[in-house]
Amino acid sequence: MKIVSYNVNGIRAALKKGFIEWLQSVNPDVVCLQETKAQEDQLDLSVFEDAGYAYNYWFSAQKKGYSGVAILSKLKPDNVVLGTGIETMDFEGRNIRADFGDISVMSMYLPSGTNLDRLDFKLKYMAEIQEYLNNLRKERPNLIVLGDYNICHEAIDIHDPVRNKNVSGFLPVEREWIGNLIASGFIDSFRFFNKEPHNYTWWSYRANSRNNNKGWRLDYAMVSEPLRERLQRSVILSEAKHSDHCPILVEVS
């Protein structure tokens, strides 16, 4: 199973930049999207169906033009769950899950902590989603949680760790949370295969950051430990330029 995750920073904008053609060239089985910024009724779903993704599921924020996640699939899932059932996070459309046989795939868009209010919201979300995932794995042990985590785990994951040490996305409390998530039984699949620096998934639109590769690795495919032996590949697809993020890809047998 080849799975792609992509924070598209607005699916309608990405479609105008050749997203469908790119998607067909990569040809994943399942696609997890974040920051779709669209309600389902604002989209022409036939565009995705014609590209081979007959099964597409959308979970939007109550606020129009904000947040939102989706799963597109060539395979028919056995089960789809919109949200987590936790009201404090679900109104922003941040989680959607599809089950395929013994594997569960979640698209997750973790909040950013752009100011103190949002940082508090982010920290609350982090605590609640950790508990939710702990419980979910009792029922669905083969779990892959893909998406924009809005956190860099280690200094290797950010272009300037010294100057960003007090910036949300690289705060000690956020980094510790990612470490605890991994320790709870997840594998950072990209680092499972690649220990090299300068691998990022998001770049500011300012100061020519992308061309200078001054980026942050904010997007992860976290794979639960029972799938360790089934991990085939995990890469960053930095050539795709439909967003300020780039997609990631993970393959499991």
Task: Please identify the structural class as seen in this structure.
Answer: alpha+beta
List SSEs in N-to-C order: EHHEHEEEHEEHEHEHEEEEE
Biggest pleated sheet:
6 strands, mixed
Helix content: 25-40%
Extended strand count: 14
Gap from first CA to last CA: 6 Å
Percent strand equals 25-35%
Enumerate the strands of the largest sheet in spatial order, edge to edge or round the barrel.
3-4-2-1-14-13
Tally of individual helices: 7
Can you tell me the overall shape?
globular
Uncertain stretches of 5 or more adjacent residues: none
How is the secondary structure organized here?
Blueprint: E1 2-7, H1 11-16, H2 19-26, E2 30-34, H3 46-50, E3 55-59, E4 69-73, E5 79-82, H4 87-90, E6 95-100, E7 103-109, H5 116-139, E8 143-148, H6 172-183, E9 186-188, H7 189-193, E10 202-203, E11 215-216, E12 219-224, E13 231-236, E14 248-252
Parallel strand pairs: 1-2, 7-8
Antiparallel strand pairs: 1-14, 2-4, 3-4, 5-6, 6-7, 8-12, 9-12, 10-11, 13-14
Quick summary:
The protein has 253 residues and is α+β, with helices and mostly antiparallel strands. The chain has helices at residues 11-16, 19-26, 46-50, 87-90, 116-139, 172-183, 189-193, and strands spanning 2-7, 30-34, 55-59, 69-73, 79-82, 95-100, 103-109, 143-148, 186-188, 202-203, 215-216, 219-224, 231-236, 248-252. The chain contains seven helices and 14 strands.
